[in-house]
């Protein structure tokens, strides 16, 4: 199936399943229903949804045959998550996939202490209070950890290597994300080591994203690191376009930004996290308990570089970066 056709079909499915009619639910009563609670948007989540469904199928659950999925999308508006989580709990569902970082995971945990929850990506899940420990999560929740805060220093270092002339580098984050404070602290420490000034910019709305890029230019920042964060991910196309229009070199957490025209990215493989989340949900549907499933940590990280974007920005990519890249877009 072509990607465009898949996205069109996926959009039809997700839009129709925001509020599944009672009759439709009755037809599916013979099969378990997994709630998919996401802080992100359906139009930019087709790939991760496909990966999640793949994980389910690897555990023996095929959507439409022996399992159903109920989708709820906050579209970057975190204040909607508690109500969406409550809807899924009220259906009820057999398990909840909390997709899109800590905001959805925390909302799901607050909504139920009984229904099993799997989070797709959470930075420092112990520190956030999601689990008791990585090896023995305890309670009704487990999932996939990511190293976003730990990787902030590496993303800043890579961007500095590519744009050594930048004496000031901006860091764009969403203060509404519980992980933001930790990531900013790591970014400030890394900037000090590199000998560059770091300007922290905040954005929790579309208007604030535009305002942040205006302030970036006013401060003469020569580049920007964009946090790997659900709201900013849900506005991925807009963020990449803002950077391109203003000629600002930008570093991202995921290669999806680079595929859209972003300069470079370094981070874990997001699709793999969602596939493993699907596997965990399948295991839970078969009777395993979240408390006994250790939080999984990423084992693979990828560097992606867009040479076309580098050329448009007048940048020469050092050979060391090119040879170390997992993906080079020309």
Give an account of the 3D structure.
Strand 6, helix 7 and strand 7 form a beta-alpha-beta unit. The longest helix is centred in the last third of the chain and has 16 residues. 44% of the residues lie in helices and 19% in strands. A seven-stranded mixed beta sheet has the order 7-6-8-9-10-11-12, sandwiched between helices. Strands 2-1-3-4-5 form a five-stranded parallel beta sheet, with helices on both faces. The N terminus is likely disordered. The two termini are 25 Å apart. It has two domains: 169 residues, 3-Layer(aba) Sandwich (Rossmann fold), CATH 3.40.50.2300; 150 residues, Rossmann fold. Helix 4 packs across helix 5 and helix 8 packs parallel to helix 10. It is an alpha/beta fold and 330 residues long.
* CATH level 1 class label of the largest domain: Alpha Beta
Provide mean pLDDT, rounded. Answer: 90
- Stretches with pLDDT under 50, minimum 5 residues: 1-28
What is the global morphology?
A: elongated
State the total count of DSSP E strands.
12
The structural domain count equals 2
Question: Measured on Cα atoms, how large is the radius of gyration?
Answer: 20 Å
Helix segment tally = 14
End-to-end distance, in Å?
25 Å
Question: How much strand content do the residues show?
Answer: 15-25%
């Amino acid at each position: 199936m072509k990607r465009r056709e898949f996205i069109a079909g996926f959009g039809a499915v997700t839009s129709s399943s925001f509020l599944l009619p009672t009759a439709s639910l009755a037809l599916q009563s013979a099969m378990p229903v997994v709630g998919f609670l996401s802080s992100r948007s359906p139009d930019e989540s087709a790939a991760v949804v496909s990966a999640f469904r793949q994980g389910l199928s690897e555990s023996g659950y095929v959507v439409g045959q022996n399992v159903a999925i109920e989708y709820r999308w906050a579209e970057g508006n975190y204040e909607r998550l508690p109500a969406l989580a409550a809807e899924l709990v009220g259906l009820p569902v057999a398990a909840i996939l909390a997709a899109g970082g800590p905001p959805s995971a925390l909302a799901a945990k607050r909504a139920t202490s009984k229904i099993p929850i799997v989070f797709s990506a959470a930075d420092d899940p112990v520190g956030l209070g999601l689990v008791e420990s990585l090896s023995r999560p305890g309670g009704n929740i487990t999932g996939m950890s990511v190293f976003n805060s730990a990787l902030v220093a590496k993303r800043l270092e890579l961007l500095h290597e590519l744009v050594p002339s930048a004496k000031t580098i901006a860091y764009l984050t969403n203060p509404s994300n519980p992980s933001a404070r930790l990531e900013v602290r790591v970014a400030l420490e890394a900037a000090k080591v590199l000998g560059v000034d770091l300007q922290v910019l905040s954005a929790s709305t579309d208007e604030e994203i535009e305002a942040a890029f205006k302030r970036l230019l006013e401060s003469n920042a020569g580049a920007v690191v964009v946090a790997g964060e659900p709201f900013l991910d849900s506005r991925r196309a807009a963020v990449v376009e803002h950077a391109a229009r203003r000629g600002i070199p930008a570093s991202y957490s995921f290669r999806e930004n680079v595929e859209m025209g972003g300069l470079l990215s370094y981070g874990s493989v997001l699709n793999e996290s969602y596939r493993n989340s699907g596997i965990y949900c399948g295991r839970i549907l078969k009777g395993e308990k979240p408390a006994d499933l250790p939080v999984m940590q990423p084992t693979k990280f990828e560097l992606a570089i867009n040479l076309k974007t580098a050329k448009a920005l007048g940048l020469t990519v050092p050979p060391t970066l090119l040879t170390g890249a997992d993906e080079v877009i020309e």
